[in-house]
Automatic annotation (TrEMBL):
Name of this protein: alpha-L-rhamnosidase
UniProt keyword list: Hydrolase
InterPro entries named among the record's database cross-references: 6-hairpin_glycosidase_sf (IPR008928), 6hp_glycosidase-like_sf (IPR012341), Alpha_rhamnosid (IPR016007), Bac_rhamnosid6H (IPR035396), Bac_rhamnosid_C (IPR035398), Bac_rhamnosid_N (IPR013737), Ig-like_fold (IPR013783), Rhamnosid_concanavalin (IPR008902)
Domain Alpha-L-rhamnosidase six-hairpin glycosidase: 440-776
GO BP of this protein: carbohydrate metabolic process
Amino acid sequence: MKVKNIFVDGQIQPLGIDNLLPTFHWDFAEAEERGTIQTAYRILVSETRQNLAADIGEIWDTGLVRSNRNVGITYCGPTLQSRQRYYWKVQTWDQKQQQSESPISWWEMGLLCPEDWTSQWIGHSTQSIGSSSSAMPLFRQTFTVKKDIKKARVYICGLGHYELRLNGNKVGERVLDTGWTNYDKTCLYSVYDVTAQLQVHENVLGVLLGNGFYNVTGGRYTKFKNSFGLPKCRVQLEIEYKDGSFDTITSDREWMTSQGPITFSCIYGGEDYDARLEQDGWDKPGFTLHSKWQKATEVQAPLGKLSAQKHPPLKVMQTLKPVNVSEPLPHVFIIDFGQNFSGWVRIKVKGKRGETIKLSPGELLNKDGTVNQQASGAPYTFNYVLRGETIEVWEPRFSYYGFRFLQIEGAIPKELQDKSNEQAQLLDVHGQIIYPDIQKIGDFSSSNTLINQTHQLINWAMVSNMKSVLTDCPHREKLGWLEQVHLMGPSLMYNFSLQPLLEKIIADISDSQLDNGMIPTIAPEYVAFKKPWDIFRHSVSWGATYIIIPWRLYQIYGTTQILKQHYQGMKKYIDYLTAKADNFIIQDGLGDWYDVGKERPGFSQNTPVALPETAMLYHVVQLFQQIADLLGQREDSRYYQNTAKQIKQQFNDHFYHPNTHQYGTGSQTSQAMPLALGLVDKANQKHVFQHLVQDILKHDYHTTAGDIGFRFVLATLRQYGRSDIIYKMTQKTDHPSYGFQILNGATSLTEAWDGPVVGTSQNHFMLGHIEEWFYKGLAGITYELNPITGTTHITLAPYLEKELKRVSAQHRLVSGLMSVKWEWLSNTHFQLEVRIPVNCHCTVSLPAKSLQSVYEKAHSLQDISAIRIKGYENGRALFTLASGHYHFTAEV
């Protein structure tokens, strides 16, 4: 047994955290021996690497703890100190008492107390709050380093966004930093290790600012206008020298500021850059200040508390090259990147001073071949004014868009430069794809092209909408609509390691909660819907994220910390809902948003709004009762258990029709949600499920469900053993289906089932629920933490569709990598290869002619010590596996 990675608060070597009770977990490399399990661990924490190497944990030493647990272990040592780097490692023992030790790792604390901040908030005194056409400010400060440096850190919060410069170079790779929040409640700061970038003698710190969501003032397209204040920053550079002395360089009125070359900055409208306004060397030593520079103004601090940014930073994670260049109109050129994505472009140009290049991104094209921004927010442009001296390279800094096509005016792409040389020359252009620097922990493929294309379609939409919140779309709104977080949460979490980002989203929800307990549909709530649009401000399936996601994080990572932190907020929300309900029925909300009916998608057409609203109320009350029980809140647990019973009774009295054995209107959502959420009495389940199946067949294997109901349609079909119906749904290519989108040219999941049509977004991930079935259904992987042992229990029950030749999936659990690969050898025989991570157990359900028809490497199951037979039911062999690598063959 070998420890592979060790994590602090879900991160490897986080720099600058402010959690005084961080949690630890670790995973394992694949073991050669089956049944390998951890039986004990020891965590050691020290201020020095040398002590740890000698097994001295003077800060914290758990001693040998007899436990299988490798997740959710909370630090219990002395109070952690600001700025301190802590080194740590874990030792583990397996069932044979063989010891394994992780490599030494570390985490570093941020600034934990307000008194740690000695810097001031600064801004530019002449910038107008009401105009995004004002040039964005630059800030600089010179300082001298005279001694050898041991370590140096920059702590910075730049609102709305910033770029940090040191001695002429950008510090780090972050973009669109810091993360979006309700700035009246929380402002995030980031930490940089700049030890290697400082030099003895003169140094210069520089900062550029952009508006971001802090200051949305319009000027072009905007979803809304709102300002928390003028762009501002707070910067603190702390240097520790090798002789033990310290220096601190802080932002204050002695810093110098000037208007910079960014002349327009809007998160919705785009960004303009006038290269003629560049000041060479402004962020380097030796720069001569002139009249454009003045002293910075110390400004009022934002209302929000400074907190360390926990979620992974946004970066340019991939680049795209053009696949086609065209000229639909004279001097109007279109770049096709072949893929809808979220980010910006990087251009290399050459031309005359003062020439302007206008870049208009878009998802679709008009009939005349030009870019269409009708559904994505117009006008949105990047404009670049050439300096005109040599080859120039530029990319935006503080605004991004979702697009596939780029319209270019004012420059000729290199592919067409033989036509004219009168305009500027576009020598190169690349699409820069931006999303968080997160671990990819899942992968899926099959022998079916359409399924693989659907998987890619959804994954592109997911990464396109991952920023510091999970957005609905990367252009028109860029808002954190909450329903998709829990409904698409399983799909996201099969593919990406999202613990820190999801915890940040839960904090956003807490900051957005109203005094009466209501959770808005959006967090941060940048748009507070008012009459007549107030119906959009609250809906149970949106607010439910505040309960569902913390519970799911507990089920995976084993930490109760997030449940404890938000317990009172959750309770307040549950009480708001039950008080709002009419005899436990929620009468208003968005219902099954964007379902499929005769009318244009939007409000629920097929299902009474009250049905999904009340079904979700029951679900969150049930979950909260379990949370209360887990945390020892016995009185609350009993109260909400009784509340859940009353909701169930009223739900059935209100929506169930005993004569027809149907709920609500009989729609797919009306049947699926009660079945999936446990609202249907056992005696009625079969009949209700039959109605669901009949409705799907009536619609020729198409769904009528929307944003809320579709996940439950799929979950119910899988739960009741009808994944064959889901498979047939995946193979449809007419409306509404994923295949229809793909057949009509979509490269990321679209907002509506209509596919690539003008009028809807071409990059939404809210209807991508089939992704969960790829992992849970076709690969058969489900799992959750065993709260008693602290280990992960896996259920493996793949659906072996005869029309599929093979399926392959892998997913990194908290204990290690799991993989599943099955393939049909003939019409009656298949093979299955599976890897179960160390410290996990697995219950397997395989289709088989009999128990005797299942073999592991030509051996009968009863002959394998790592396998325990449970029985044979409904045509499936049931058995358990210890950790390890297995090869099965079976006859069906």
